[in-house]
Amino acid sequence: MPVMHFHVRWPDASETRCYSPSLVVRDFLVPGERYDLDDFLLRTREALGIASERVRAKYGFACSQAMDQLAEIEGIAARFGSTPDAKVTVIAFD
Fold first, then answer.
1. Can you tell me the distance from the alpha carbon of 16 to that of 89, in angstroms, rounded to the nearest whole number?
2. What pTM did the predictor assign?
3. 93: burial class by Cβ within 10 Å (0-12, 13-18, 19+)?
4. Of 46, 54, 66, 86, which is the most exposed, with the fewest CB atoms less than 10 Å away?
5. What pLDDT, on the 0 to 100 scale, is given for residue 47?
């Protein structure tokens, strides 16, 4: 499966390089777009869930690395839960 990474900028201007075991993330996120925090989380949960299931379909087991990445994203996002109008920018794919 083609692995990809997506880079995001959080509301505090910190950046994270995120992992996906599938290119499906391209169907949910667009480089250069700013997403409301909740919308970003919904899109990321869906994309990484689908990516993990694609691994399951091919190899017989879900992708724990995708789920670990989702947990990391959710942990970082929790820091901004009370930030009004929190936005996450997708910087790039690689």
1. 11
2. 0.94
3. middle
4. 46
5. 98
Cα-based angle 57, 31, 13 (whole degrees, multiple of 5): 110
Euclidean distance between CA atoms 85 and 88, whole angstroms: 10
Tokens in use for 61?
A: 């087991």
Phi, psi at 57, each rounded to 5°: -65, -35
Question: How many residues in total does the chain contain?
Answer: 94
Rounded-to-integer distance, Cα 76 and Cα 81, Å: 10
Give the C-alpha distances (Å, rounded to integers) separating 18 from 26, 56, 82, 85.
Answer: 13, 20, 23, 22
**Structure tokens of 60?**
């017989």
Which residue type, as a one-letter code, is found at position 15?
E
Q: Find how far residue 44's CA is from the centre of its chain.
A: 4
The segments of the chain whose pLDDT lies below 50 read none
CA gap 68, 80 in Å, rounded: 19
